[in-house]
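Second opinion, please. Please look over this fold, written as tokens:

===
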Amino acid sequence: TGGGIYAELRDQLTINNCHFENNEATNKGSSAYLRVGHNNIKNAVEEHDTFYIMNNVFIFTPSDNNKVNLYLENKVLTDETDVAHANVYFGGCTFSSTNTNIEEYKHIEIVENEGGFETFTFNSCNCVKQGENTISIPPTIKFENIQFGCLSLDTCTPSTPSNPTTSPVNPPTETSTPDLDGYTPHGRIKETTIEINLHKCKFSYLQNTNEDGGAILITFNKKVNCTINDCKFKSCSGSKGGAISASYSKTNDYTFTIIDSSFEECSSTDLGGAIHIISGQPLHHVFNITGCRFINNKATTGGGIYAELRDQLTINNCHFENNEATNKGSSAYLRVGHN
């Protein structure tokens, strides 16, 4: 059981950017067997445990005695009064088989035992070379961001959820409960029409390389005020703006403010490894980035920040460390002024 990894963990597991190839398990989990979550500890704070399976490569050679590549289940909750609290984030992975003559093998088998998952989110595109019959997912988990017949993540297109809502993704409500580190996990915010006001949120392993703004996207057509205070962005990727892309135009007044936040290991395939900001109108759009940390971010231009602004930019008391840009501006690339 668990040819590559066997893990039975209460919380805080990250498997990121790993390569699994031709591992074997006569039971299940040739690459990995993961059992996550646990019964809540009584007389303690409410728990919301997080598990990240991100950006991994799984190459599988199934056989009669080796039929399940990645096996993942929640731990059975034995107390009927206990609530689910295992939260799994799964994305940016590729799955391929080198032996398609075996019947009924599975690249992924997810089992929801008694008590279930609190959430299970395929938060970025997963590329599966073979067909839908190679995945087993309970009906309670939203089936999205899995592309079959896919040869490369470069051609993997993020999907619309099978039961999408008609409203945009909004900031967390007051009922959101933080993890043990005091920060609340948050999904991607894309072109919301509601003002963004975030405090102590974290955006982790959101991979959207075919679109701008891996974690947050504000566009010319859907502009809102944005305030981000004491938030964390970790390993997010986008085309322009690995973590955030924000574009403003016209004469309505808007403010874009980031305070005391961190950006680590975010990447862009073009401009702005962490932040990409554009302003097309003077006097009306104010940008303030204060007390932030930019560490190990990467882009073609502007490893930490790419800014193309007419006026009113402040970058104050920030820390830039080991950012990279293959063109120019490892920490920041700033184009300022206008006709």
